[in-house]
Structure to design on (813 residues):
């Protein structure tokens, strides 16, 4: 009979082998870069929170309450994120993983199978949240002088906090799979979770939490303190964890928090195992059923027919294929919901800027915001390109035998992928830029600079995403959403930030001259410095477009399968 | 029709394919046999243009694959051993896409697609997503995709895996007819009965080198094996385990 350790052995052996391979393949530089970026991120989170908590510590009476409230909010958001991600991960690990046929057919105890898969689900969906929580707890520990004993306390509190959503997520998925086929459930869950996440973000932004933090909004201080003292969600594990941590830091220590956390986690695991024993065999059988059957391909054929008049047969078929695959894969198109939320929040933030409240804001300031907004818009576009364009080459991985054995010119392939990804990005870029400039009521000169620059930047960002995607392909990853979080995705984002910084620094010269002239009431004269700066931007963006595509093409020619 | 000259593939210090020279004439069904890990799939993938050789040349018809890849690949239909295809396309869409890769479209392609799906009994599945196809149905679809653009030569790796007896028989008939009309097939297989019954000539590869090549009669002569079957010849040439050793292992 397979023991739990035996069932888990292939997982950690695989992880060890992958680490060894990375090291042998000269992955030390890669690892060092990842470590530096992670450390910088940790330090940034720690620094910001340290400042906030140090300020709270200085405020008598309300300080600790505010610190507790903040931790409660953070842990509550962690709990919701964990619940959503466990729902999706449980579906893969319990019902769609490739090792299940082997495990289910072998004489493995059901409880061991449950615990192994629960552990797998927990690790896959919680590692990012766990890493994120390190600088947060560190800041609390340092500011409130928790000492070394604070570390085991945090571990003891955090562990049941990640177990609870893992068990609930797995159990919910188990029930859902018994009702719908697994692949249908996956589609359903991806849309529901992304829509829920989008809605949460949207609500969080639209209610303007920064206003709630201002005590002047309350009738008196007593009201404010009463609100702070009331636990927001007394029946949720995040509140118990907050209670345990804050009572330890401020005293006296309250054992109820850890006791509630551990007993709930224990009861849930036992209950989850019972449910698993009852429902898993039926659910696993159902999970083998197919998903969609007939599709109406002729609709796409009719919609995309005009492409045939413009492009060659191979290019047209490639574009049609890519568009169909995108809109038939729920894990792909559902990301558009988040994209929509992102754009709405972006425009909302511009609208909410305190530029037009009260007296007339100087034209100088508005123009500066509009100009710097280019960098922010560029960053948003880079994130979108990382999610949608960067994985394009990787997603061809398993089918590369077909593309390489056919007389398809790889340039045509790259060309089709570039425009399929870049045209929608360009439309989005123009909408964002035009809208923000209209909202900010900028001058025609600033509008022209913004629109021209964003077009050049988008063309370059699309090429960088595709080029880096070809240089750092992830052929083994089946989930497109995981590809941007790879090392290549990180390198792409860093390169794009360098490009954005370079363009903004160079364009600052003509924009500054323009603003100076308008400010002094002088006529705006285009001089050689302005021309040189704009020419430099055009050259840099052209190079950032052509070079990555060429490098990507050369790399694709060397792919071997 | 297919000519290999000094074809070599190295992975670091490991030599997967070592200086292979082979000629498959037009109008022949050529069997490519060898034990697991001998270098069959690597050789076929190099001929299909998926892997780049470390050294050597590959001629498909009059075209050098490395110098004129587009022209050479246009002559070829490749059937891999593992049927990875776009799961979210339907069978009909997939065949249309493959025809497009060869620059073909229009009414003629649509008729060809219908013919092929009909022959392989996939017509009722034409508008279903490939993700709901069984392994055998995928294999049939990939075989159809290798034929959709009317190639001059077919390179096929383990064609019978996953096919039901009817489809296997159909494939054999298709290959025989294809060769009868002047086409060329280079086929790797572990089903030695199929190779014995179908192939005009056979090459046996071991540890990256061709150890024997010719008709079955030629191979018998080379090994002085009398009237031995292809299975016996294969085991003799590749040093396979004897029946007694196998029985001992299974009896343990």
């Amino acid at each position: 009979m397979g023991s739990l350790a035996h069932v888990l052995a292939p997982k950690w052996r695989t992880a060890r082998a992958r680490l060894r391979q990375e090291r042998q393949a000269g992955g030390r530089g890669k690892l060092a870069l990842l470590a530096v970026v992670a450390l910088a991120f940790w330090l940034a989170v720690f620094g910001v929170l340290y400042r906030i908590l140090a300020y709270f510590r200085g405020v008598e009476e309300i300080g600790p309450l505010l610190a507790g409230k903040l931790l409660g909010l953070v842990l509550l958001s962690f709990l919701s994120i964990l619940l959503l991600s466990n729902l999706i991960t449980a579906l893969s690990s319990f019902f769609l993983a490739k090792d299940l046929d082997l495990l289910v057919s072998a004489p493995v105890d059901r409880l061991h199978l449950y615990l192994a898969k629960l552990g797998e689900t927990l690790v896959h969906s919680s590692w990012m949240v766990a890493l994120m929580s390190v600088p947060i707890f560190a800041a609390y520990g340092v500011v409130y002088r928790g000492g070394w004993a604070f570390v085991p306390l945090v571990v003891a509190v955090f562990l049941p906090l990640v177990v609870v959503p893992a068990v609930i997520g797995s159990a919910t998925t188990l029930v859902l799979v018994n009702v719908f086929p697994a692949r249908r459930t996956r589609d359903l869950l991806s849309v529901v979770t992304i829509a829920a996440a989008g809605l949460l973000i949207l609500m969080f932004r639209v209610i303007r939490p920064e206003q709630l933090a201002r005590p002047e909004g309350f009738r008196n201080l007593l009201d404010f303190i009463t609100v702070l003292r009331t636990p927001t969600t007394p029946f949720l594990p995040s509140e118990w964890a907050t209670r345990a941590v804050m009572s330890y830091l401020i005293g006296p220590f309250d054992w109820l928090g850890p006791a509630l956390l551990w007993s709930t986690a224990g009861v849930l695991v036992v209950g989850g195992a019972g449910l698993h024993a009852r429902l898993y065999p039926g659910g696993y059988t159902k999970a083998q059923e197919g998903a969609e059957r007939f599709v109406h391909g002729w609709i796409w054929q009719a919609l995309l027919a005009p492409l045939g008049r413009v492009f060659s047969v191979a290019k047209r078929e490639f574009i049609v294929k890519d568009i169909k695959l995108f809109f038939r894969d729920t894990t792909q198109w559902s990301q558009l919901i988040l994209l929509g939320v992102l754009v709405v929040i972006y425009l909302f933030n511009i609208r909410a800027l305190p530029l037009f409240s009260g007296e007339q804001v100087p034209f100088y300031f508005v123009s500066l915001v509009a100009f710097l907004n280019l960098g922010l818009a560029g960053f948003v576009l880079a994130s979108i390109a990382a999610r949608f364009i960067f994985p394009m080459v990787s997603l061809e991985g398993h089918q590369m035998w077909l593309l390489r054995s056919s007389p398809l010119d790889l340039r045509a392939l790259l060309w089709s992928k570039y425009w399929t990804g870049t045209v929608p990005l360009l439309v989005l870029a123009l909408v964002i830029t035009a809208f923000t400039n209209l909202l900010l009521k900028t001058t025609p000169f600033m509008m022209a600079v913004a629109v021209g620059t964003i077009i050049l930047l988008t063309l370059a960002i699309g090429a960088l995403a595709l080029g880096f995607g070809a240089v750092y392909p992830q052929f083994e990853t089946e989930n497109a959403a995981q590809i941007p979080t790879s090392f290549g995705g990180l390198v792409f984002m860093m390169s794009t930030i360098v490009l954005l910084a370079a363009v903004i620094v160079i364009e600052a010269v003509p924009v500054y001259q323009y603003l100076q002239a308008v400010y002094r009431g002088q006529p705006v004269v285009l001089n050689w410095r302005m021309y040189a700066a704009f020419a430099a931007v055009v050259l840099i963006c052209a190079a950032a477009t052509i070079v990555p595509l060429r490098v990507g093409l050369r790399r694709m020619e060397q792919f071997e399968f | 029709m297919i000519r290999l000259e000094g074809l070599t593939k190295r992975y670091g210090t490991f030599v997967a394919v070592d200086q292979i020279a082979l000629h498959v004439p037009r109008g022949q069904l050529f069997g490519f046999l060898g034990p697991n890990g001998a270098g069959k799939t690597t050789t076929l993938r190099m001929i299909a243009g998926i892997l780049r050789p470390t050294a050597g040349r590959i001629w498909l018809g009059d075209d050098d694959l490395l110098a004129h890849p587009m022209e050479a690949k246009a002559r070829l239909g490749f059937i891999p051993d593992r049927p990875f295809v776009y799961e979210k396309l339907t069978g009909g869409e997939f065949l249309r896409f493959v025809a497009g890769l060869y620059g073909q479209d229009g009414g003629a392609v649509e008729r060809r697609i219908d013919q092929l799906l009909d022959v392989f009994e996939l017509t009722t599945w034409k508008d279903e997503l490939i993700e709901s196809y069984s392994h055998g149905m995928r294999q049939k679809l990939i075989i159809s995709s290798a034929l959709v653009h009317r190639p001059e030569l077919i390179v096929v790796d383990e064609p019978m895996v996953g096919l039901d007896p009817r489809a296997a028989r159909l494939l054999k008939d298709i290959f025989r007819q294809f060769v009868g009309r002047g086409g060329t097939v280079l086929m790797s297989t572990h089903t030695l009965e199929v190779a014995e019954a179908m192939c005009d000539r056979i090459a046996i590869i071991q540890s990256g080198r061709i150890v024997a090549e010719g008709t079955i009669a030629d191979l018998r002569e080379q090994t002085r094996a009398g009237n031995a079957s292809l299975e016996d010849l294969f085991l003799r040439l590749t040093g396979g385990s004897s029946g007694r050793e196998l029985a001992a292992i299974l009896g343990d």
In short: The first helix of chain B runs from residue 40 to 47. Chain B has a mean pLDDT of 88. DSSP finds ten helices and ten strands in chain B.
